[in-house]
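Illustration: Arylsulfatase.
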Amino acid sequence: MHSQKLLLAALLASGLAARTNAQNITQQQQPFTGTVGKTLAESKEVWTNPVKAPAGAPNVVWVLLDDVGFGATSTFGGVIRTPTFDSLANNGLRYTNFHTAAICAPTRAALLTGRNQHSVHEGGFSHTWSSFGFPGWDGRIPSDKGTIAEILREAGYNTFAVGKYGLTPDQDASDAGPFDRWPSGKGFDHFFGFLGSQTDQYKPDLVEDNAHVTPDGRHLNDQITDKAISFIDRQKKAAPDKPFFLYYAPGATHAPHQVAKEWSDPYKGQFDGGWDEFREKVFAQQKKQGIIPANVILPERNPNIRAWASLSADEKKLYARFMEVYAGYLTYTDHEVGRLVTHLKKINQLDNTLILVVIGDNGASKEGALGGVITRSSAAAIATPLSEAEQVKNNLAQIDLIGTPEGTNANYPLGWAQAANTPFKYWKQDAHSEGGTRNPLIAFYPKGITDKGGIRTQYGHVIDLLPTTLEIAGIKAPEVIRGIKQDTIQGTSLAYSLNDARAVSRHKTQYYYIFGSRSIYHDGWKAGFAYKPTSAATGNLVSAISVANPDNNDWQLYNVNEDFNERIDLAKKNPKKLEELKALFEEQAKKYNIYPYITWDDVLKRRLPQPTQQQQPASGK
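Result:
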């Protein structure tokens, strides 16, 4: 009995301590400055007024597209029409030296928090098959790494998100929650979209706020745009002077490539010349627009990509159709962003809105493999892939499904991925290459940008957009959010470059790591290591990952100030510089939780069925 009383006392004491700590946390956020006496007459009331954003603080819209290469849009020299992005850039700025993490979830986690991907535990994904129980890899953004939504909400903004979130752990993604790692738990007042990495555009795994809802059959782009507009209108009706933050992140243009024929049919015949002709056209236009330096040379096709002229008539017909649909998908996505911009202008909010558009969360997708994909593959098909000839035959039989609701996994062949990444080598997932990590950025802010239509070459990364936004809005990063002391913001504000094209880059060092592929940038130099999986568990997935990489796994060295698209490997010529950068990468690895080095081999062992091991004969006595 005595021991039970002691235990009860201890529990009561701990509960009291917990309540006291909670009160202290509340007081740290909003300290009481009045007087508490024995009676009301002896006391002084103090009311806490709602937090207001700084006077004149702009609305903020972040647009993040999915799987769009550097050279896809007309805004950055491409042949796919994107008039909305053209207009925003012509009245704002084009950043041509901006970077992502090379794959979706790491990019999104870094963007929303202003911190490197492993610092916020998103070395890979938040999916069960690709997260690991280590600080840099468990796929759970910690509370001391507050998001832009949490910061702006505490600074007097309303906060909305629509489209792809991609950062909720699989275990938490049901209607039972917990919801602390849903968008609502990371600072968003309202959310409408999907929690995973990809979804069907006509039958999306749709969520509104904290519950799954039934989609209405329209294309997801249409639905999220309507919802974004409704969020804004509802807020402006209730609080006209209160600014808002909108995170607009469509599933487009990630697979499945699905879009109405009214968008894809205008591109019929426009890609019959193939990916080689496409690259040449885009390359010339990029030079004409000043997107790339005049002395840049177009690299050779990536390994295993065949010359268009060498393809059969059936292959050309099939592959051209894949690209017609993709182009329509991208133009339609631009149109939906245009609906949002037009609405902001209609309600007289556009001039006081900062719009930052990241055209792709990584380079163009390699996941269509050599022959493209139309319908979803079974686990057996992934483990035992078709030959390229069999794949072409099957796809030709389904060619009319590309772009339709029945094309449940439509994705173009690898040749188009390199073309969309012009002028770079390689593609999505390749953290060692600019083709995986360099994506265009548009900055639009009528009140703050005077050099309209300007081009900016300062080095930037997605972690820079949070501090950029805060500086422009006049908001200081908080030391505490909801009682949790916050870690340091790791990004570098780009605000210094808005009206100074010649400003020296302030973001000096940046690492990249995606499942073995890695690189380190420092002050104009870059070292990269192209990891090639060696897993015995081969198949379409491994093929898509490894087909682009060189035969060797040696480190390479580039002076990217002089060699824009990494054509000249200086590793043997300048081994000292290479060793310096490799040592710097190791420092970053320790500092930002990259260890342990988890590779695609490790992921594949979890994701794919493993061959059954034969039982060894007993050797004991």
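Reading the tokens back as a structure: The CA atoms of residues 9 and 425 lie 67 Å apart.
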